Amino acid sequence: MLDPNVVEEIIKLIKRGEKPSRYKVAERFGISEAQARSYIAIAQYVVERENEKKEETISRQLSSIKKREEKERLTHEFFLNVLEKAVREFPVPDRIKPPIRRVRSVGEEVAVILCSDWHIGEVVRPEQVSNVNVFNENVAASRLELFATKIVELVELQRHYTSINKAVIWLGGDMVSGVIHEELKDTAILLAVEQTALAGYLMAQFIAEVSTLFREVVVITTVGNHGRLSKKRAFKTHTVNNLDYVAYQICAFALRNYKHIRFYVDASIFRFADVNGWRFVFSHGDETRSWMQIPFYGLRRDYASKQAINVYVHNNGDLTGAVQPVNYKVIGHFHTTGLIPDNYGFIIMNGSLKGVDEFSFTKGFISRPSQYLFGVHKEYGVTFNYPVWLDKAKDTPSRYVVDVPDVWADMEI
To answer: If DSSP codes are grouped into helix, strand and coil, which group holds residue 225?
Structure first.
C-alpha cells in the first residue's frame, strides 16, 4: 500500500522545480526503485491535474470578464446612439424679453446661480412623508419656474446698488435620480434615459429664461454620484460615464444658438474657476467623508486638500510657488443650504430641488427644497447671497415643458 506522506513530499519537490529520480527517492524514503517509480508517477499526475484545474479556472474567469466587458460596451454604444438621435429633436426654447434694467450706482458684480441635486425622475409621495413634501417631474418644473422668477426679482433688486451684467451658472450634479439604488429603479417614473432627457431639457428652459437678464452667461459643470452608470464609484470614468454629463451635453446642444451663453462641460471631478477676481472650487461634494453623519469636519479637510491641489494645478506642478488661494468652496450633495466660514474663506452649500424624501424623513433630517444665488464683487468677494426656498411652488408648471419628446417613448435600456 502506498504511503500518502511520501507522495506529498514528492509533490512538494516537483512544485519547487526539482525533478526527483527513482534512485534518489528510493534512497531518501527507504523504498525500492520500482516503488519509487510508482510514487513519482502518482505525484506527477497529481501536479498535472492541479495545473489543468488552475488553467480551466483562469480560462473561465477570462471568458466571464470578456463577456461582461462586451455587454457593457454594447450597452454604452446603444445608449450613445439613441441619445445622438434623440437630442436633435429638442426644440430651442423661445427667447423671453428681458426686464428694464435700472442701475443707480457705480460698481460691477457677477451673479452666481447654483443648480444641483434636482433628482429628476424621482417620486416622493406625500402620504409617505406625513404630507410635508411631494415631488415629481411637474413639481420639479414648477419649482424651477419659481427659482427663475426669484432670480429676476433679486437681481433687479441688487441692480439698484450695482451693475450686474454677467452670470455664472453652476450645474452641480445629481440632476437625475439615476439607478444606483434598487428602490430608485423600482419607484422611478421615468427610465434612466428619459430622466436624462428631461433633466437636460429643463436645464435648457431654465437657463434660456434666466440668461435674458445678462449680457454674458458662463455655465460650468460637475457631475454627481446619482448619475453614475457603474455600481461603484469609478475615478477614471466617473465624469463622462455619468447621466449628468449627458444631460449637460443635451442642454448645451439645445442652447447652441444662444451666442451669449458659453458652456464648459468639464471632464474633471471638480473644477477651479475665477469669478470676478476671486478663486472658487466647485465639486458635487460626494467625495467628502462624514463623521457620525456630520460632514463639517470632512468639508474642512477637503477644503484644505483643495488648497494644495490649487497650488499644484496653477503653478505647473511646483508646490513651492505662491498662487492665489481658493477663496470659496462650493458643493451640493448634502441637500442643505449653508455658508460655513473657514480659515481660507467660505464653504457654500447648495440645497436640493427635491426636498425631504422617505430616507431623510425617516432619519429625521429636515431638508427644504432650495437653490442658491449670490453675487461676487471684485473688491469684496461674495456680497449678497440668497438661499431661495422653493417649497411654496405650485404642483404644476405654467411655463416649462415636462413632456418628454415622442422620440423617447418606446426606448428601453
So the answer is: coil
The answer to whether 328 and 345 have CB atoms below 8 angstroms apart is yes
φ, ψ of residue 6 to 5 degrees: the values are -65, -45
* C-alpha cell, 65: 470578464
pLDDT 10s digits, 171-206: 999 999 876 656 555 555 567 788 898 999 999 999
Helical H segments across 315-373, by residue range: 358-363
Homologous superfamily of 104-408: Metallo-dependent phosphatases (3.60.21.10)
Residue carrying C-alpha cell 439615476? 178
pLDDT tens track for 230-246: 666 666 656 777 999 99
CA neighbor of 223 nearest in space, from 254, 267, 288: 267
CB atoms within 10 A of CB 93: 20
Task: DSSP letter for 126, please.
Answer: G
Tell me the three cell numbers of residue 114: 447654483
pTM value is 0.73
Q: How many CB atoms lie within 10 A of CB 352?
A: 26
Q: Which of 172, 164, 148 is nearest to 273 (CA)?
A: 172
CB atoms within 10 A of CB 189: 14
For residues 235, 256, 393, 164, the Cα torsion angle rounded to the nearest 10 degrees is 100
Where in the chain are the domains?
1-87, 104-408
Residues 6+ apart with CB under 8 A from 251: 171, 200, 201, 203, 204, 207, 219, 263
